[in-house]
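Action item from last meeting closed. Structure (69 res):
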């Protein structure tokens, strides 16, 4: 995947991000064909950018409890 321009990313806090422990994840889903995920506490550290279909599959797995420990 080539370098993705995140300058137009519209970040929003993930619904399930922690409210009290500072562990917040932000998601930008307004970019063409990709989703970007970053740590809201340290946004300067970059973001993980993945194909939108891959991110959708990941979310389905999370909702199904496949990553619960």
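Sequence:
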């Amino acid at each position: 995947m080539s370098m993705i321009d995140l300058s137009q990313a519209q970040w929003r806090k993930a619904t399930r991000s922690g409210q009290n422990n500072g562990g917040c994840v932000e998601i930008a889903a307004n970019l063409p064909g990709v989703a970007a995920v970053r740590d809201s506490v340290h946004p300067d550290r970059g973001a993980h950018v993945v194909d939108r279909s891959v991110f959708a599959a990941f979310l389905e797995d999370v909702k199904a409890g496949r990553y619960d420990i």
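Note appended to the action item: DSSP finds one helix and four strands in the chain.
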